[in-house]
Every structure is written in C-alpha cells, then in structure tokens.
Write a structure and sequence with these properties.
408 residues; 5-stranded parallel beta sheet; Rossmann fold; globular; 4-stranded parallel beta sheet; 18% strand; alpha/beta
C-alpha cells in the first residue's frame, strides 16, 4: 500500500510539473527547419525601378551575408512575386505563401493599398510583414498591427522634411498633384499639414490615376493656380513623367517643383540639368560615408545602378529579422517581433534605429538638394546633404499616434 501511495504521489507531482512546464512553454522551434522570406513587389509597373528586382537582389544579399557571418543551423529560402499594384493580387499571393508555401515574413510590398491588404492577411495568419516600400502612415496609425513593421519611410517623413525650409525660403503657396490612391491621399494630407504648420497654405490640388499616360491637363491646373510650389504626391514613373511634363510646359520657370517621394533613380533618369536644385527627403544616400559606399558598390556590381532607400532598407530589414530568428531560435511571429523591437538597429542603413510599439522603425532621414552638373564629381554623385533629420523629428511623434496598440 505504501509503495502504491508513493507511486500515486510521484505521478501527481510529475503531472503538476508537466502542467507548470506547459504553462511556461517555450515558443515552437523553426517550422520545417527553414526560414522562408517573400519579396512582394512591383516587378513590371510604375514602381518597378524603385523596388522590383532591386529589392529581390538586396534581400538575397542579406541572406547570403547572414549565412556567411552567422552560419545558421537553419535553411533560408527566398521567393518573390509581382503584385501588379493590385491589392487583391497582393493579398491573394500573401495568403497563398502563408497557407501553402510556409513563408514566415514578407517584405517590400511597394504600394500602399497592397500593403494595407497584406498587413491584414499577415495578422490573420500570424506571420510578419516588414514593409520597406509602401508609404502610407495608416500602417502605424489606425491600421497598425502587432505583426507589421513600417521600416524605411512614410508620408509624414516625406512631407515634413522639405516643407519647412521651402516655406521659410518663400514657397508659401502650394498646389498638390496627387496619385489617386491610399499613398497619394496620405502624402497630400501630411504635406498640407506640414505646409500649414510652417506658415504656408495649399491653395489647390488635383488627383491623377496611377501610371497616368498624360499629365498635361493636371499641370495646366497647377500652372493656372499661380502657386509658388507644385508638390508631387506621387512616385516612380509618375514622378518622372510629371517632372518631364512640367519642364516641357515651362512650369519650372515660375514655379518650384517638389517631388515628395523622389529617389536617386528618378534623378538619374531625368538628369542633373532637369533636376538641379530640387529638395526632398531621403532615407539613404549611397555616397554618405564609407559604409554606405561599400555596400552600395556591391549592389551596383549586381544591378548596374546605385541603390535608393528601398533596396537598402530591404537588406537591413531582412538582416534584422534573421538576427532575431537566430537569437530566439524560433520563427514564431510574436517572439521574433518582441526581439526585433528590443534590439537597436545599427548598420549602413540606420544608426541607433529602433522599432516602436506602433511598428514604426525610427531612424535618421536626410534633407537633400540635387547638385548642379558642375558640382557632381563622379557618376551617381547627385546630392548635397542639407540636413540630417533625427528620427524622433522625422517621423510622427508616438504621442500623436492613432494606433490602438499605443497606450496613451
């Protein structure tokens, strides 16, 4: 009887310990011993030169460098797809990747409407989205998610960088030429608020479809407004075509053109004679320092063009994610996100970067001015850095966040 009682006591103790261990269970290990990353981008449309193959290449560079440096025990795979700038195509591809291909994290997502849709699917499937391409601040405000990081830039940072100095220098009346979807609407709103805060005003606006074929009617409205500044709340091919048409119509003789989402790819396509003197906000410049030059030249060796902030940010985001997976030993979304938020980001893209509670990655931005042809000393040497904007000033203050995850 004593032996039986002892066995029963031991069984009860073991059951108690088992219950305690289940209650404090560690996150599951890597699913399938493989980490799978998906680059969902514009491979063929109006934004393909901003991200596209450049983002795919940058993500693969991050994977290759991580393997060489960390020598992980797990496998890493990369897949990519073209979302065609359609929210339904993007969300369906994300769902397919999560459900049938074991994708753990999606990055780039270069289109705000697509990013908002993919963010919802990502939260539903409990995976991770490291957005490096879309700009709408809705991703860290009313549509924030515990599964989404907004990594490179947003419309608040793009608008506030140039608005203050331009208004201060006399550009106090603005007309907005806006891409008619989530990104353009967000950028116009943030620019209007920034111009107003600086003491100026927006006296008119017009919206154009994505990938517009003819900007003449829109620019004639801008010209007739007599605004001192024409703000371009568009990107990629739309920005390039807007600036070309503005030069052809002679707007640049009497009005200042501000490309609110302009990158070095646009400047290269248009040339310094057309763009000299333009000011805008950038998140990265290849010729900033020795670190940026070293990485950018490796990228150039593969792509035959210098990187803009999107592929540079994609590399950084993929590397930050993989380091968090390595440290935690799992691809569990909540565990990896917690580690990423707890770990500062220090690389060629960002110094002392950090991911806030609302998912915003905060890092320095740069107010740049395009050089004159005579000032450029080598190919792709296009920018004067007019100001370094500290991250806490570049991005919307956390106290103004409309994200439900942020405690007021």
């Amino acid at each position: 009887m004593k032996t039986k009682a002892l066995h029963l006591a031991l069984a009860a103790a073991l059951a108690s310990l088992a219950g305690a261990s289940f209650g404090q269970a560690k996150p599951a290990k890597l699913s399938g011993d493989t980490v799978k990353i998906g680059v969902l981008t514009d491979m063929s449309g109006v934004y393909s030169d901003l991200g596209g193959q450049g983002s795919v290449t940058a993500a693969q560079m991050a994977i290759d460098d991580f393997k060489a440096q960390a020598k992980p025990a797990f496998k890493i795979e990369l897949v990519y797809a073209d979302h065609q700038n359609k929210a339904d195509v993007g969300s369906n591809k994300a769902r397919e990747w999560y459900d049938t291909q074991g994708v753990d994290m999606i990055t780039d997502v270069l289109n705000s409407a697509v990013a908002l849709a993919v963010s919802k699917v990502t939260q539903e499937k409990n995976r991770l989205l490291m957005d490096t391409g879309a700009a709408t601040t809705r991703l860290t405000n009313e549509d924030c998610s515990p599964n989404t990081v907004h990594y490179v830039y947003d419309t608040y940072a793009l608008a506030n960088g140039p608005a203050k100095p331009i208004v201060k220098n006399g550009g106090d009346t603005w007309f907005m030429l806006t891409a008619d979807y989530a990104f353009g609407h967000s950028l116009e709103k943030d620019t209007t608020e920034a111009v107003k805060a600086a003491g100026g005003k927006v006296i008119g606006s017009v919206k154009h479809p994505l990938n517009a074929s003819d900007f003449s009617s829109f620019l004639l409205q801008a010209q007739s407004s007599k605004a001192k500044v024409v703000g371009l709340a568009n990107a990629g091919g739309d920005t390039i075509n807007s600036i070309k048409a503005a030069n052809e119509f002679g707007l640049t003789k009497s009005q200042t053109i501000v490309g609110l989402l302009t990158t070095i790819i646009d400047i290269h396509a248009l040339g310094l004679p057309t763009t000299q003197g333009m000011m805008f906000t950038e998140g990265f410049y290849w010729n900033l320092n020795a670190e940026t030059r070293e990485w950018s030249r490796k990228f150039f060796g593969k792509m035959k063009k210098m990187p803009n902030m999107l592929p540079a940010g994609t590399y950084s985001a993929v590397m930050h994610y993989l380091k968090a997976v390595q440290k935690t030993g799992t691809d569990d979304a909540a565990t990896v996100m917690k580690e990423m938020k707890a770990t500062p980001i220090n690389d060629f893209f960002a110094k002392n970067g950090r991911i806030r509670d609302d998912g915003r990655m905060v890092h320095d931005m740069y107010l740049v001015q395009v050089k004159k042809q005579s000032e450029s000393t080598e190919p792709w040497d296009y920018y004067h850095i007019k100001a370094v904007i500290p991250g806490d000033q570049a991005f919307q203050p956390i106290g103004l966040s409309r994200c439900p995850m942020v405690k007021k």
